[in-house]
Structure prediction request, 169 residues.
Amino acid sequence: MKSAHMVRSFWQDREGSALVEGAIVVPVLFALVLGVYEFSWFFYQQHLISTGLRDAARYLARSVTLCDPTAPGWSILDANAKNLATAGAIDGGAARVKGWSAAMVTSRCTLIDNRGDGRGATPYRGGPVISVVTVSTQFPDPSLGFFRILGLQPPVISASHSERVIGPG
Prediction:
């Protein structure tokens, strides 16, 4: 009889209920907050990389050598563009994103046939050949570690930006 009374009083006792509820809710809330922070950090890094690639593509699009990788000054322009993408300055400096280097950036020129259909209409404004420069990268996200805690690989940021070459002006 006494044991039945003790069991009944144990189940009706409410003194430790807040501690039990807290022990259940706090880890879930903590994981949710860290997840939101980690994804915000990822999107911020992706934005910085996209901005750098846009700057580099615009720099190459305004270069003197109109999208000719065999031109004598092209390698210098290409190196400057890669530094501009990763550091924000053509002479280098601190990286926009930790671990992102000029070696991870690629640039290429594409020549697009812009000849008309014989009636004078061309697909794009300009001459018979349009030059487009594309700067791209693939960079493993410098994750804060939350992905690893969950046993996941951090995502890879893949981005590119293309600009029509317009030359100096």
Strands lie at 105-113, 129-140, 156-164. Helices lie at 2-12, 17-61, 74-87, 146-149. The chain has one domain: 16-164. The longest helix spans residues 17-61.
